[in-house]
Every structure is written in C-alpha cells, then in structure tokens.
Amino acid sequence: MPLTFLRRIGRLFGSRLLRVAPVKAYDRWAATYDSQPDNVVLALESSLFTELLARVDIEGKIVLDIGCGTGRHWPDILLRMPAELIGVDPSARMLERLKAHYPDARLMCAEGDHLPEIADASCDVIISTLVLAHIRSAAVAIREWHRILRPGGAVLVTDFHPAAIRAAMKRTFDSEGQTIEIEHYATEMEQLRNLVMNCGFTAACVTERAIDESVRPLFERARYLKAYKKHKGQPLVFGIHLMKP
Q1: Pick from 32, 66, 72: which is nearest to 140 by CA?
Q2: pTM
Q3: How far is CA 193 from CA 96, 149, 186, 189, in A?
Q4: Can you say whether residue 14 is alpha, beta or left, with left for phi > 0 and alpha for psi between -120 and 50 degrees?
Q5: DSSP 194-231
Q6: What is the pLDDT of residues 155-204, one digit of tens each?
Q7: How far apart are CA 147 and CA 86, in angstroms?
Q8: Which class for 83: exposed (0-12), middle (13-18), buried (19 or more C-beta within 10 A)?
Q9: pLDDT value, residue 171
C-alpha cells in the first residue's frame, strides 16, 4: 500500500506512525500543505464547505475563521465580500503561509477554544473547517464560540467524521521521510448535537460526505481501486450550520 495514498486517506490502526500534537504537526506540514491535489479528505470537505457557505449571507459581515491554516477557503469567503475576515490559528508557520498570500490580513496566533482578544458578541459568522477534533474539549470550544458570536449569527463547522475514526482512519501526512499522525479527539455526532444545543445553538443543517464516485479518480491515480471499493460509502467528513438565536 503506497505511502502517498496512505497520507490521503489514513493508515490502518496499528501501523507505525509518529503521533504529534496538532500545533507541532501543522508547523511541520505548513510548507507542503497547499500542495495536495489528490487529498481525498480535502476534496470531499471542499464541496461540503461550499454547500454550507451558500447557506449564509456574509456580505458586510465580520467573519472569524478559526483554524484558518494557510487560508484554503479564503478565496471563496472573500468573493462574498465580508466587511472583515479574521484568521485564527495556533500554528505560526501556517499563519506565515497565509500572510504570504494575504499580507494585509488580520491574524491571531491562538487556540480555537481560548480567544480572550475577541470581545463578547463581536462576530457575525464563525467558520471552523477540519479543526474541532484537534481541540481537546469540543464543549469548551463551542462555549467560547457562543460567547464571541452575535445573536442571529452563524457558525459553519466541518470536520473529520467520527465514523471514519471508528473505521481506523487517521489524519496523517508525510514529512522528511516520516508519516505523521495528528492527534485528534473524536466527538460522536449525537453527542455533538446535544452539546451545541446545550450551549445555546440551533442546528440548522447537519450533513456529511462519504467516499463516492467523485473521488474515484484520486484512488485510480494512486493505483488503489481495491481501497475505493472497500471504503465506498464510508462517511469521511461532516458539516454543521449552527445558529445563535
């Protein structure tokens, strides 16, 4: 099974990996993060995020991107003319890459569950893509997001699906001859639904993307159709649109 493919979809449980905390992992990954044309997770997540973003009017709004990384979704977000787009990420090297693309961007190097520099009820829209499971406590993060979001505001979340984690898939990448597994903390979907409700949010939409025909070419290029046939139908990413009454 080629390493290039394993990086895209994850290794089987028990494979020998170097497990690294998220900040250190993304600092290592930053230099090559934007060069992943055949990443299955990112391919499915991108279409899901586009669907979620279309649900929210962000023109003239203050948007906070928590876990912004290198700004993978910023072209789509900025096309919708927000009043301000603020990036938050704990990885300084990921922010350096984003700053190279958007020199005038307002960026904060901070964890997504502790944002003391952001005032109460000061953001209209919060975006967090493929980040929540990297935060040790989803409950702490969601309570913090509720604090900084204005009434009537929206939160758009995507993440690695807990069902994929149960299926022994991992979030990995190759760096300097090593395969790095990024630490994550899965929250089951039903638990997440209860959590957002208890924090004062309403879930306007919950959706997911499974391995399907749209990503078959990625498996074909990896010469691993056997894996495609085995995992077809496996949920890989999910998305949630939350609203603050």
Answers
A1: 66
A2: 0.91
A3: 34, 18, 13, 6
A4: left
A5: HHHHHTT-EEEEEEEEES-GGGHHHHHHTT-HHHHHHH
A6: 999 999 999 988 888 888 888 888 899 998 889 999 999 999 999 999 99
A7: 17
A8: exposed
A9: 87
Q: How large a percentage of the chain has pLDDT more than 90?
A: 79
| 90: amino acid identity, one letter | P
Nearest-angstrom CA–CA distance, 29 and 43: 18
Band of residue 25 on the pLDDT scale cut at 50, 70, 90? very high
**Amino acid at site 78:** L
Q: Tell me the sheet residues that pair with 18.
A: 180
Nearest alpha carbon to residue 123 among 72, 81, 66, 201:
66
Residue whose entry in the numeric block shows the structure tokens 């979030």: 171
If we measure between CA atoms, which residue out of 160, 209, 169 comes closest to residue 187? 160
Record the tokens describing residue 197, joined without a space: 């409700």
